[in-house]
Amino acid sequence: MTVTDTTDRSAPAVGAPVLEATGVTMRFGGLLAVNDVNLTVREGEIVGLIGPNGAGKTTFFNCLTGLYKPTSGQVRFASAPKVTPNGSRRATKNGGPTTESGAVELKQPAGSLQPLPPKPRAVVRAGMARTFQNIRLFANMTALENVMVGRYCRTSSGALTSVLRGPKFRREEAATRARAQELLEFVGLGKSAENLARNMPYGDQRRLEIARALATDPKLILLDEPTAGMNPQETKQASDLIFKIRDSGLSVVVIEHDMRFIFNLCDRVLCLVRGEALIEGSPGEVQSDPRVIEAYIGTGEDDDEVDPDEAHVQDTTVSEREGNA
Ligand SMILES: Nc1ncnc2c1ncn2[C@@H]1O[C@H](COP(=O)(O)OP(=O)(O)OP(=O)(O)O)[C@@H](O)[C@H]1O
Question: Domain 17-127+218-324, what fold?
């Protein structure tokens, strides 16, 4: 069996840290779900988070994105500079740019690392976006409207302006619509703008969620099981899209059970087992570590089992990837 993936996997040079988790621990009563886990994500990196069911991946993800406040430890994130009307950038007090122009670029350059803002909305404004394991679209809204909803954290019209639909509101609305359409095209859904989300195929709904997350102008996007339930063709499209997002200048963290997907995609992989970091390294290092294989086989989970044939395929791919770098 050979790998026919033609995507150029050579990663751009990684830059400064955009996210740093130190000693993150999360307890639910007597249950230690995450224990003293560290992770640094740099500009331009795709980092994978793997582990058997119940390993603590989603809990750690929720700590990284500010949904959970860790019992102990710290998460720090690079503050985004603000885009001023004349295009220059300056640091903001609480995070990301408030662009009205619907600028084409996705990338938000990193600033200094600071503790996460306390409220999830402020985390989004600071430049961190995420998707969830279960699709959370507005089913009765069109694809375009779903993306526009994501964009509203970057608009500044107040309630009164919105009710009166004044010139400022109309300008922002037009820019929001244009940017949403642009993002739909970016994820390959340009022709589906007017389709109701609930009528879209499953793989398209997943891409729509990513477009909505991108609408917040993140510099880091976290994807929780983006290929869950996808067929091989949709999975390949998801992988291509994530490379494209990385190539546009964002950093990506991704949880996935599909080992082949993760090892083909990521620059670095962290494996959690029973809430603890078992190993962090290149895909080659992680997939050949006997403890990782044991952790999966030990669970008896068919989905996660490391097939020796697959391992061979992955080895080939990783050497090709390292050859490309
Ligand atoms: N809100 C919660 N309250 C209590 N226990 C929780 C909560 N969330 C998760 N847990 C427990 O914490 C542990 C880690 O769960 P988590 O969902 O983070 O694992 P996971 O690696 O994401 O698993 P999966 O791959 O199945 O999604 C599990 O034992 C789970 O039952």
Answer: Rossmann fold (3.40.50)
